Amino acid sequence: MLKETQETVRKDWDTYFMDIAYMVSTRSRCPRRHVGAVLVQGKKLLGTAYNGAPMGVHDCLEAGCMIAEEIEVKLEGGKERVVKKQRCIRTIHAEQNLLLFTDRADREGSIVYVTDQPCWTCANMLANSGIVEIVYHRSYPKDSEKVAALMEQKGIVFRSLDQFDPPAQAQMEITL
């Protein structure tokens, strides 16, 4: 009989699936941020996706990022504040690719593990996808508050794995 040691203890399910999301993110060719997402139902992996240009189209490493600037008016303390955001519009987000390449029936009641907190657009899409939970690691401050509010309103469990350490092979420096 093998004696369990620190090295042989199994990872918990959250760590296991987030590790997979990070490894999936290594397929991304985005120079700003590698994002991976996995769809899970009942501990069964149903799909994976990462961010990148549409299939057959030059990606950001080949053609450069397509940066669009957006302006959002936020109400803080009764005063309006203008916030500028930059987004690459060449890239299809990991969550969007996950929804494109999985079936609605598989998404019903499922969990999405994603390396990064979803942006507003992805959050809206996920809110309508049939999933019941989103687990993410890195925050995305540009849309954080309104995404959390949307998930609460929809009744979707929305949680961060703050203490998670990504696999060494999948780590990258984030450019915002």
UniProtKB/TrEMBL annotation:
Has UniProt tagged this entry with the keyword Hydrolase? yes
Bilayer-crossing residues are none
Q: What class of enzyme is it?
A: hydrolase
Looking up InterPro entries in the UniProt record yields: APOBEC/CMP_deaminase_Zn-bd, CMP_dCMP_dom, Cytidine_deaminase-like, dCMP_deaminase, dCMP_deaminase-rel, Deoxycytidylate_deaminase_dom
Stored Gene3D superfamilies: Cytidine Deaminase, domain 2
Give the molecular function GO annotations: dCMP deaminase activity
UniProt domain CMP/dCMP-type deaminase: residue ranges? 12-158
What is the official name of this protein in its record? dCMP deaminase
